[in-house]
């Protein structure tokens, strides 16, 4: 499993339009069988965003990334951004939050 992380700076005042464009891109990308999840994060600097996209494999991500469909889908995002930097990393371990019952049981064990 891999995670693509894309850091972007959008045109001043373009944040709302960028967020709308991302929603459309993410919706379409979520239909790709190897796409697992996507997130849009707003940075603490004005007009700064991070997109993360998790994929089942590097090959699947590369196939989508180099496809005409991806180029068409992401065109609205490219029009709104000033800069972008992407990295792709292998997810070595993913840990979901424990269920509330498990947390309580762990806390009770610790308090004994």
From TrEMBL:
Keyword Lyase: no
ABM domain residues: 2-92
Protein name: Antibiotic biosynthesis monooxygenase
Transmembrane segment boundaries: none
Alphabetic keyword roster: Monooxygenase, Oxidoreductase
Pfam families cross-referenced by the UniProt entry: ABM (PF03992)
GO molecular function: monooxygenase activity
Protein's organism: Actinomadura litoris
